[in-house]
Structures are given as structure tokens and as C-alpha cells.
């Protein structure tokens, strides 16, 4: 089984390939700090909850799908979150969180939130998935997750908590949406964004799969129609997370908006980036695109989606044997320059070829028009790149991280993968030299995500990776990497003079 393979000495000895800057770019590199192992042994491995008829065992001591946030009031404080003990067919026993008070040098585990039964939550939630963390303007920290009963698109909820500064622990989570799976209704892919312009404001968004009127008005007709949609849901807090608004869809139409994520511009405009996976009568190529919706009143009203570019993402695979990789591919990541208002969106796309590259699109007019997409990963022809993350510092420095397989050796039994870093000081007109951030590691050792026994969806370390600027030209990368039979969470601080 691939999940038991180990990194060989030959793979570990692969030389690192550094690429030169674009013409006119400065040659100043990041100072790459220590690669800090954040996670430790799981406390949930003995939990009896969460098993399914198909899978009785989770991947013990395995952390996947990391996110990170930096406190703007005190940049030495950061919080990282992951899934804890991933199940092969979806979700995890729990969600873990860690905090640093010394700028990323050391990390301490925060007490568990009772998301799931394994973490002291409701017994109806055997699992939980999709962790995300964010700070608002005044340093309130928000943590969101998705409790589920199993991976069978049954019971699903959206649950949010915030950090209680008086105790140093997370408040009891508040469920803002819960569905029982009837009539095909389910929730998926949550994210949360603290507002950097409005104290006490934060925004939760996710996809809610359903039929019109939740299938109640025409239940038979709906089930035989093309009316199924994935609605981009929205809820907000204006009091630091103590209360949340009733969830409403940003747009109620026959579209399937996946991977919703909100960023905030310097004038307080909200931008929700999304992958529209179908429009209208079923799955067709006419309506498959990356788009962005805008709100100028803190989420009360939203525009129709402006199309950024079509999605032409190819299947991610290990080149040795075409074993699938489940990773962040068409799911977009977004960042906004808080001085100029420029918006950057990255995702992984084939651009009409057979190989995915991390691509970037940019808007300088509030999301109405976009340049690109242009490939920004530099691994060379035939090298696939993915698991992208982008952020912009308060000096306008754009930082990008991604994975690729340029150092993989066909036929050696190791899926050699590395993490890379690029940055730009001129709004991505040029890029400074690419730098190696982490690896090589063996992707074969990652947990495998399954549709069903014998039907692998792919090697899974997460649909998202964490990256956030700290202050000035400093950045924190928060990601997962494989061990012998699972994955651990790592943090690397990057400083630029």
C-alpha cells in the first residue's frame, strides 16, 4: 500500500534546483528560518467514534489540511490549525490548533474545541473537517470547522468559535448551520476571514449543496432536473464572534460554487473568490470558471460573479504510476494588497495542456477585469505544481508557495515532492529567484483519500496550505509533510531585508 512507503536515501540526496529571477528583478532572497515541527502525538487515537462500514481505522497521529493566521496587533502571535487523525473516506477525529507567542520559533497546542464526539462534542458528529483560522483588525481570533456524522454526505454542520483572551482557550463552538442530509443537502469547504478594516467583524462562507427551496416545493421534479446547485453561503459576526447572522446565500442560482474564500480590500470591499464547477443544465464546459463576487456593504449584498478565467485543471497524479493525488488544484486562493487594492488569485491549471501549473490572475480595478492567468511556478516542462498559497505584505511584497515534482525520479518507488517559494516586489511584474522551502518528501507516504474501498481518490495532505505575512517583509508558511505512514504539521518563518 502506498501509505507505507518511505523516503529513500537516493531521493533525499536529490540536488535542489534554484531558478533565476525574471529580468530586472532584485536578487535578494528570503532568509529561510528553521523548519519547526509543530504537531505532536495525537490524544484522540483511542476514540471509538467515527468509524464507517467501509473503514474501521483512521490515520493515527496524522495532521493534514493546515491553515495559519497572524495577529495584526501582536505579530509575534500566530495560530495554526489542521485536521487531526484523518479518516480514509473523509473528515477526521478532530481539529487541532497551535499557538506561538515568539514569532514562530516555538508552538504550543491549544486545548481542543468540542467539534466532534472524539473531542467532547455532540455524539451525532463522529467526525469533523475543513479547519480555517483568521484574525480581525483588533486581534480577535476566529476558528471554523465542519462537524459531520460520516463521509456519506449525511449530517453536516458549520461551527464557529473565537479565542477567549481571559482564559487563553477557545469559546464553546456555535453551530450556525446544520443539515441532516435529506434531499441531498450537505455543507462543504468552509473558510473564515477576519476583517482587517472593521473591528469585531469576521465572515464565514461555505458551499451548501441543495435544490431550489431545499427540494420541498417540487421534490420529485427537482430530483429529475438540472436544478441542483452549490450555493455560496455567508454568515458574519460584528461583535467579535459572540453572535453570528442567519446564513444566507450570496447567490441563489443553478451554479455550483466551490472553494469560496473571502478577502477584504483597503476600502472594506469584500471579494469572494470561487470555483464555479457547473452552470445551468448539468456539468458542461460553458460555465466552469474561477470567479469573484463583490460586496460593498460588509456582506449584506453581493454582485454577480465576474469571470476571471476558465478552469482547465487536469488530473494530478504521481508520474511514476499515475496514482491520483487529491490536492489543492482548481480551488483558488486570494490575496489583496492593502495599499494599492490590487487583487491576486492563484490556482492550478493545465492552460490547455496535460500538465497542471500554478497560475496567477491579477485585477487592479476592484475585480472587474483580470490579467492572466499566467503560469508562475517555474518547474519546467512536464513538471506539475499545486497546493498553492499567496499573500501580500503591508509593503506590497507578494509571496507565493507551491509544491512540485521536478525532482521526482521515475521508477524509484518514491513520489519525490518539494515545497517552493517565490516573491515579487513590483506587483508580480517580475519575480525574485525561486527558493527551496521544504523537502524532498515522499508523497506516497501521505494518507490516501478514498471514494470507497478499492476506489482511491488520491494521496491527501490537504485541499489547502497555510501562508500569511507577519509584518513588513516577513512571512510564515504552515504546511504538512509526510512521515513514514502519515503527516505532520510544519512552520517555517521567512524574513526579507
From TrEMBL:
InterPro entries: Sialidase_sf
Stored CDD domains: Sialidase_non-viral
SUPFAM superfamilies: Sialidases (SSF50939)
UniProtKB keywords: Signal
Keyword field contains Signal: yes
Keyword ATP-binding: no
Membrane-spanning ranges: none
Signal peptide positions on this chain: 1-27
Record's protein name: Exo-alpha-sialidase
Amino acid at each position: 500500500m502506498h501509505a507505507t512507503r518511505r523516503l529513500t536515501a537516493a531521493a533525499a540526496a536529490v540536488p535542489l534546483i534554484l531558478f533565476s529571477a525574471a529580468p530586472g528583478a532584485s536578487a535578494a532572497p528570503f532568509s529561510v528560518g528553521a523548519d519547526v515541527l509543530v504537531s505532536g502525538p495525537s490524544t484522540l487515537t483511542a476514540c471509538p467514534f467515527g468509524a464507517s462500514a467501509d473503514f474501521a481505522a483512521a490515520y493515527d497521529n496524522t495532521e493534514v489540511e493546515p491553515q495559519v493566521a497572524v495577529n495584526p496587533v501582536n505579530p509575534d502571535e500566530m495560530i495554526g490549525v489542521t485536521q487531526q487523525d484523518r479518516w480514509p473516506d473523509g473528515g477526521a477525529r478532530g481539529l487541532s490548533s497551535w499557538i506561538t507567542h515568539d514569532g514562530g520559533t516555538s508552538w504550543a497546542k491549544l486545548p481542543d474545541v468540542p467539534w466532534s464526539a472524539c473531542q467532547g462534542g455532540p455524539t451525532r458528529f463522529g467526525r469533523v473537517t475543513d479547519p480555517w483560522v483568521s484574525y480581525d483588525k483588533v486581534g480577535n481570533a476566529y476558528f471554523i470547522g465542519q462537524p459531520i456524522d460520516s463521509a456519506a454526505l449525511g449530517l453536516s454542520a458549520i461551527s464557529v468559535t473565537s479565542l477567549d483572551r481571559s482564559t487563553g482557550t477557545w469559546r464553546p463552538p456555535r453551530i450556525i448551520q446544520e443539515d441532516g442530509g435529506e434531499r441531498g443537502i450537505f455543507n462543504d469547504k468552509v473558510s473564515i476571514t477576519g476583517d482587517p478594516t472593521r473591528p469585531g467583524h469576521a465572515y464565514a462562507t461555505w458551499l451548501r449543496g441543495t435544490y431550489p427551496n431545499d427540494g420541498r416545493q417540487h421534490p420529485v421534479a427537482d430530483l429529475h432536473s438540472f436544478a441542483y446547485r452549490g450555493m455560496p453561503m455567508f454568515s458574519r459576526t460584528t461583535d467579535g464572534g459572540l453572535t453570528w447572522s442567519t446564513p444566507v446565500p450570496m447567490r441563489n442560482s443553478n451554479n455550483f460554487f466551490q472553494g469560496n474564500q473571502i478577502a477584504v480590500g483597503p476600502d472594506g470591499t469584500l471579494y469572494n473568490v470561487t470555483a464555479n464547477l457547473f452552470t445551468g443544465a448539468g456539468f458542461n464546459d460553458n460555465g466552469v470558471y474561477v470567479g469573484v463576487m463583490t460586496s460593498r456593504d460588509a456582506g449584506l449584498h453581493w454582485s454577480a460573479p465576474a469571470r476571471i478565467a476558465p478552469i482547465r485543471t487536469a488530473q494530478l497524479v504521481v508520474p511514476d504510476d499515475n496514482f491520483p493525488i487529491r490536492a489543492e488544484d482548481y480551488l483558488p486562493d486570494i490575496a489583496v494588497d492593502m495599499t494599492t487594492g490590487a487583487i491576486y488569485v492563484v490556482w492550478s491549471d493545465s492552460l490547455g495542456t496535460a500538465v497542471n501549473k500554478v497560475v496567477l490572475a491579477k485585477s487592479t480595478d476592484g475585480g472587474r477585469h483580470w490579467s492572466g492567468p499566467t503560469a508562475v511556478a517555474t518547474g519546467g516542462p512536464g513538471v506539475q505544481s499545486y497546493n498553492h498559497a499567496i499573500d501580500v505584505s503591508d509593503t506590497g511584497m507578494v509571496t507565493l508557495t507551491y509544491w512540485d515534482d521536478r525532482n521526482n525520479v521515475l521508477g524509484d518507488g518514491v513520489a519525490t515532492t518539494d515545497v517552493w517559494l517565490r516573491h515579487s516586489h513590483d506587483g508580480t511584474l517580475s519575480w525574485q529567484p525561486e527558493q527551496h522551502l521544504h523537502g524532498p518528501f515522499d508523497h506516497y507516504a501521505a494518507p490516501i483519500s478514498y471514494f470507497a474501498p478499492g476506489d482511491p481518490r488520491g494521496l491527501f495532505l490537504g485541499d489547502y496550505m497555510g501562508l500569511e505575512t507577519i509584518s513588513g517583509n516577513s512571512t510564515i508558511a504552515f504546511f504538512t509533510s509526510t512521515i513514514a505512514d502519515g503527516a505532520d504539521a510544519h512552520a517555517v518563518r521567512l524574513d526579507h531585508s
